[in-house]
Amino acid sequence: MRPVSLPGLVRDQLRPFAPRPTLGGVTDRVCENCAMPDEELVLVRRVYVTPEAWDSPEATARTVEETELWCVSCMSQYPHVLADGSDED
Question: Would you put residue 29 in left (φ > 0), alpha (ψ -120 to 50) or beta?
């Protein structure tokens, strides 16, 4: 008896399925400030601002050394500097 020739698609469907590798533990990139998933994150340094008050006549700003990945929304609302030291404009 002569073997039957099957079209490629049918032949591929008849093969046993091999287990596919999975990427367990892979997560979306998230903003380190608000924890929202975002594809466009920017490396920044957080700036803590203390406004002037009745007991402290001068406002102060302190930039931390640690860097964080922030989304555009957080960058528009919170004080920060870009980690590479460039201007944002």
Answer: beta
Locate the domains of the chain by residue range: 29-89
Averaged pLDDT in 10-residue chunks for the chain of 89 residues: 60 59 66 94 95 84 96 96 79
d(CA 46, CA 32): 11
Q: Are strands 80-82 and 60-70 parallel, antiparallel or unpaired?
A: unpaired
Q: What's the whole-model pTM score?
A: 0.61
Helix, strand, or coil (residue 66): strand
Q: Could you count the other beta carbons within 10 Å of the beta carbon of residue 41?
A: 19
Q: Residue 48 pairs with which residues in a beta bridge? A: 62
Contact 4, 43 (CB under 8 A): no
Interatomic CA distance for residues 37 and 80, integer angstroms: 20
- Residue keyed to tokens 């002037």: 52
